[in-house]
Amino acid sequence: MRVFEEKQQFRQWWVHVIFLIVILGISIQIYYSNSSNLQETTILFAILFLNFSLLILLYKMELHTKIDINGINTSFRPFPFFKRHYNWSEIDKIYVRKYSALTEYGGWGIRGFTEAKAYNVSGNYGIQIVTKESKQFLIGTQRPEDAERVLKRYTEKISK
Asked: Tens of pLDDT along 51-101?
């Protein structure tokens, strides 16, 4: 295997349950609200619209990772400003490791505003990158064995 490509999306059942409860609660409140209070009803419809919009955005979000001869590319689509590229020459260490999204990064998504940053969607395996400038970046993966196999191929070539 010369190229590793992975696309991940937020599809956890508990995220859907949270959105469903909020949307259902707001819908019930709209149904039983006093229709004469136009301002309250407008605010509830705006919150309902916002929740539907966030749910659609969540379905569109995708973590895309590619490892090839040029290095590692990752992006959190549809956001063009959350793209990362690491050339092999920039990387000091790279390996697949088990991690805890909650305790190490505070959850899933685009995480970390310090030296240690992470893009992850679900699970507890990631590709850990440490640059020659000692910056750390973790990319979540659902296919740790495949990622490890491709990383081994390129890191062996670099170390020679």
From this structure: 888 878 877 888 999 999 989 999 988 888 888 999 988 899 999 999 988
Q: Where are the domains of the chain?
A: 9-60, 63-159
What pTM did the predictor assign?
A: 0.76
Q: The CATH number of 63-159 is which of 3.30.70, 1.10.10, 3.40.50, 2.30.29?
A: 2.30.29
Q: How far apart are CA 9 and CA 77, in angstroms?
A: 10
Give CA–CA dist 118/127, Å, rounded: 10
Q: Which residues contact 64 (CB under 8 A, 6 or more apart)?
A: 5, 6, 7, 73, 74, 75, 76, 77
Q: How many CB atoms sit inside 10 A of residue 105's CB? A: 21
